[in-house]
Amino acid sequence: MRVRIAAVQYHLRHLQDWADFESQVDFVLDAAAEYRPHFVLLPEIFTTQLMSLLDVSDVRRAVRELSGYTPRYVDLMRRHARKHGYHLIAGSHPTLRGDRLYNTAYLFNPAGEVFEQDKLHRTRWEKDHWDTTPGESLSLFETAHGRIAILVCYDVEFPELARQVSAAGADILFVPSCTDDRQGFLRVRYCCHARAIENQVYVAMTSTVGNLRISGLRMHYGQAAILAPSDFPFARDGIAAEGIANAEQIVVADVDLALLGHNRLNGTTIPLHDMRRELYDDPVRVVAA
């Protein structure tokens, strides 16, 4: 089965009102639809653009106020998924449940159904400045175009998560991210490459670009990419497609899910098959040397 993925490098701009945000989202998602993708990916917390409409002198309070836009965000994204008939991984959005704030990725399917995946590991900024709550469970979503999972930015730096969903049958890992400098971006990018190789899956990532007049969110460094296992049947260098760093654009690639099954059995290396699980049940031996 061939699947087309579109990853949006989303440019953050100062907004005057909600209509500005909706107009920009309409533009990029309508533009993505012209490539007839099965999946569209937006970056992590790209909705922080809406904080330009809020008093951000107290960032902890402002990000909680941002959750008030959740119903309008959900309606907007659902409308595009229905209109264009694609699965939309609509980045992530700060979401309040009771008095707890989560960094939640939202998945919208063509029928208008909405699914959630909370970020499981918090960065220092999310702990210290936003006071978020980590999620507690990881989901594998079965779609008409393969099994997918969402690892929000920092979560891809924990290989155990990717291995769990890959062992459960994932074909594509989607990684919405938001990084402010090249080092942070490369941590996510290198880990995405590693997860594709270790688990013989495709990994699609994208990032915010541009800047905001908000503490902690002023600068962004980003580049979208669609990555493959590093072996003969796949793209050279394991890169099916990638964007130009820090530019507003849409990166598109076709991936063949049938190649994954073949590679997991007949690849030059087959790490999913060769993993000696019994070694991981025992504690490490400490040897005086």
**Helix content, binned percent:** 25-40%
**Number of separate strands:** 13
Structural class label: alpha/beta
Q: Assign the CATH topology.
A: Nitrilase/N-carbamoyl-D-aminoacid amidohydrolase
Order of helices and strands: EHEHHEEEHEEHEHEEEEEHH
Q: Low-confidence parts, pLDDT < 50 over ≥5 residues? A: none
* Biggest beta-sheet profile: 13 strands, mixed
Overall pLDDT level? 95
Q: Which architecture name does CATH use?
A: 4-Layer Sandwich
Which range does the strand content fall in? 25-35%
H/I helix tally: 8
Give the helices and strands, then pairings.
Elements: E1 2-12, H1 18-33, E2 39-42, H2 59-66, H3 70-84, E3 87-97, E4 100-108, E5 114-118, H4 124-130, E6 141-143, E7 146-150, H5 159-167, E8 172-177, H6 182-199, E9 202-211, E10 219-220, E11 225-227, E12 239-242, E13 249-256, H7 257-266, H8 271-274
Helix pairs in contact: 5-6
Key descriptive features of the protein:
alpha/beta, Nitrilase/N-carbamoyl-D-aminoacid amidohydrolase
Short description:
By secondary structure, this protein is an alpha/beta fold. The chain has eight helices and 13 strands. It has a single domain, classed as Carbon-nitrogen hydrolase (Nitrilase/N-carbamoyl-D-aminoacid amidohydrolase, 4-Layer Sandwich).
